[in-house]
């Protein structure tokens, strides 16, 4: 794993946007794998700014998102589709037909998970996957204990994940209980992974992710076995990594 150490969130976001826009410039048909949550928001802001300033073209880019809540329509403000349209797809001009997320309103959610997995394969797989990390080590919505062999699937969200994501809802009970997520095997097939980690809340899990035993109880530890991972982490997130390396 390559670790890029930065001072703070804003610098992490700028560095990440630079890597993504360079990938798109060198291959205009890049398939981007994208994440939601608070962590990549700054990155999307810088991508939108870069698009305006430098006319970086996204007209041929395809995107696949990691996950979507069950029960939220794409035009619902708390769906991940709405988040992506607002923060990235519209600002940089990715044609709607080239942006893909699971359908959280599908009648048969297991079939929808299979369909979405197939969509990713039909696109030829993900060239560059952006990842955040949950405090319990989840990637996408793959909660602790998820098989490393998992493909896109339906998940029941843990209480801790629903609590962590409650900031985006009026009350914790509004947070959906299920989601469709790319599986860990699906994520690991990406040619390149860009893991973004910011803040003191992520310091313990970042240490585990980088140096802990590879274990299904901490899904992100599987990233140690991927051949092309770049981690961009800020000083707060690196606190424990640094404490242990100095001890
Ligand atoms: N499904 C998302 C993940 O893709 C994200 O990485 C994680 C961390 O979110 P945040 O960046 O807000 O800390 O939360 C959610 O559960």
From TrEMBL:
Pathway: Amino-sugar metabolism; N-acetylneuraminate degradation; D-fructose 6-phosphate from N-acetylneuraminate: step 5/5
Keyword Hydrolase: yes
Name of the top EC class for this enzyme: hydrolase
Coiled-coil intervals, chain numbering: none
CDD domains with a match to the protein in the record: GlcN6P_deaminase (cd01399)
Active site: 67 (proton acceptor), 136 (for ring-opening step), 138 (proton acceptor), 143 (for ring-opening step)
EC annotation from Swiss-Prot or TrEMBL: 3.5.99.6
InterPro entries the UniProt entry points to: Glc/Gal-6P_isomerase, Glucosamine6P_isomerase, Glucosamine6P_isomerase_CS, NagB/RpiA_transferase-like
Molecular functions per Gene Ontology: glucosamine-6-phosphate deaminase activity
Stated family: Belongs to the glucosamine/galactosamine-6-phosphate isomerase family. NagB subfamily.
Protein name: Glucosamine-6-phosphate deaminase
């Amino acid at each position: 794993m390559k670790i890029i150490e930065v001072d703070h969130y804003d610098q992490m976001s700028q560095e990440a946007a630079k890597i993504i826009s360079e990938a798109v410039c060198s291959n205009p048909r890049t398939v981007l794998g994208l994440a939601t949550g608070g962590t990549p928001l700054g990155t999307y802001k810088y991508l939108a700014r870069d698009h305006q300033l430098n006319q970086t073209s996204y007209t041929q880019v395809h995107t696949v998102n990691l996950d979507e809540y069950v029960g939220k329509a794409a035009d619902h403000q708390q769906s991940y589709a709405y988040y992506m349209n607002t923060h990235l797809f519209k600002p940089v001009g990715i044609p709607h037909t080239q942006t893909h997320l699971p359908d959280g309103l599908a009648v048969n959610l297991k079939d929808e998970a299979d369909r979405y997995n197939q969509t990713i394969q039909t696109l030829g797989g993900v060239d560059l996957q952006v990842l955040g990390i949950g405090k319990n080590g989840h990637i996408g919505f793959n909660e602790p204990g998820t098989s490393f062999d998992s493909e896109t699937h339906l998940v029941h969200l843990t209480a801790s994940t629903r609590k962590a994501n409650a900031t985006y809802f009026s009350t914790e009970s509004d947070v959906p209980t299920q989601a469709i997520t790319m599986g860990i095997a699906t994520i690991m097939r990406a040619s390149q992974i860009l893991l973004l980690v910011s803040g003191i809340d992520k310091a313990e899990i970042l240490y585990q992710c980088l140096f802990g035993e590879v274990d299904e109880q901490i899904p992100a530890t599987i990233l140690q076995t991927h051949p092309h991972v770049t981690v961009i982490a800020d000083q707060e997130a690196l606190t424990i990594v640094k404490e242990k390396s100095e001890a």
